[in-house]
Q: What sequence folds into this?
């Protein structure tokens, strides 16, 4: 079974600074997806960034980037120029490559609560 | 972007009653929908995968007779919590996957269930 581990229950960063959230995972699959989701107090899950395991290039989305280390099974999220609106729970998630059988729900880590200090 | 709605957003019921939660994809057809459960300050846990026109696939440890899932159309999946008990109180979130964008799941806003 796949597992996703987020070892930082809570992180705090000054506004405009950079913060890195850690995530490791365990899988025997070679093809899969990794995601970072943000859950603000509204509880709505918002996709932050996605990485396909077969791609060596790290994904970036504006101020958000990942450091994907496939051999180490590590997938960290870097948030640059942190803003007050970034405050939320951040979940790392894993999914197998689309199997066609519908058996590709997400496996989530326990989350990291990100606090932005003004 | 794709929009997924859930109804109701909050529900309070008495122990022993059944509660139905709806998940709708508003601007796309979803052959597959997923149901997750989130306990307070905890992660999301996949409960089941709902495929249109066929039986749902339940994750290990999830009682299929307790959590009935029906995916009768390409835009609607329902989760019915039968004979609810206080331990079923939780936040239930659905997600839907468009057939042509198999990489992405779009999440609903969630339903807070409180069983008294």
A:
């Amino acid at each position: 079974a796949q597992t996703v581990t987020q070892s930082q229950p809570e992180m705090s960063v000054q506004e405009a600074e950079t913060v890195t959230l850690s995530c490791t995972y365990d899988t025997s699959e070679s093809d899969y997806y990794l995601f970072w989701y943000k859950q603000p107090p509204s509880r709505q899950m918002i996709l932050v960034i996605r990485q396909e395991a077969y791609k060596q290039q790290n994904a970036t989305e504006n101020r958000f980037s990942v450091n994907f280390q496939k051999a180490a099974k590590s997938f960290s999220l870097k948030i640059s120029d942190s803003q007050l609106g970034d405050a939320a729970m951040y979940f790392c998630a894993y999914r197998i490559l689309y199997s066609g059988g519908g058996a590709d729900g997400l496996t989530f880590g326990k989350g990291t609560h990100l606090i932005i200090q003004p | 972007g794709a929009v997924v709605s859930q109804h109701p957003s909050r529900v309070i019921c008495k122990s022993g009653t059944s509660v139905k939660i709806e998940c709708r994809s508003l601007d796309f057809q979803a052959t597959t929908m997923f149901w997750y459960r989130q306990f307070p300050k905890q992660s999301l846990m996949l409960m089941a995968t709902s495929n249109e026109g066929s039986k749902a696939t339940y994750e290990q440890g999830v009682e299929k007779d307790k959590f009935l899932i029906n995916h009768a159309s390409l835009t609607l999946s329902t989760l019915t919590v039968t004979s609810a008990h206080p331990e079923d109180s939780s936040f239930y979130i659905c997600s839907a996957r468009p057939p042509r964008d198999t990489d992405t799941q779009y999440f609903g806003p969630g339903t807070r269930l409180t069983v008294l």
Summary: Chain A touches chain B at residues 33, 42-47, 50, 52, 91, 98, 102-111 (CB under 8 Å). The mean pLDDT of chain A is 93.
